[in-house]
Amino acid sequence: MGSAPGNRGRDGPGGSEIAWTIIGLLLSGVVAWGGIGWLVDRWLGTGLFLPIGILVGAAGAFYLVIRRYGQG
After folding, report:
1. Which end of the chain offers a freer environment for a tag, N or C, measured as fewer CB atoms within 10 Å?
2. How far apart are CA 35 and CA 38, in angstroms?
3. Residuewise pLDDT in 10s, the chain (72 residues)
4. Domain extents for the chain?
């Protein structure tokens, strides 16, 4: 039997794969929640929710990275 596509006989993902996953999580969290904050700001006519959304997205992304790749 052959191995599944993408499985190179290693026990887990390599270092560069993990690094790109972490970068993707961080960027997507900031962009998604920053975008939500921007939309709320446009809707309410304020300038407060964009920075809050960016911070919430960054905090959530850090939480997911630590949860997935942390020592535990």
Report:
1. N
2. 5
3. 444 555 555 677 788 999 999 999 999 999 999 999 999 999 999 999 999 999 999 999 999 999 999 875
4. 15-69
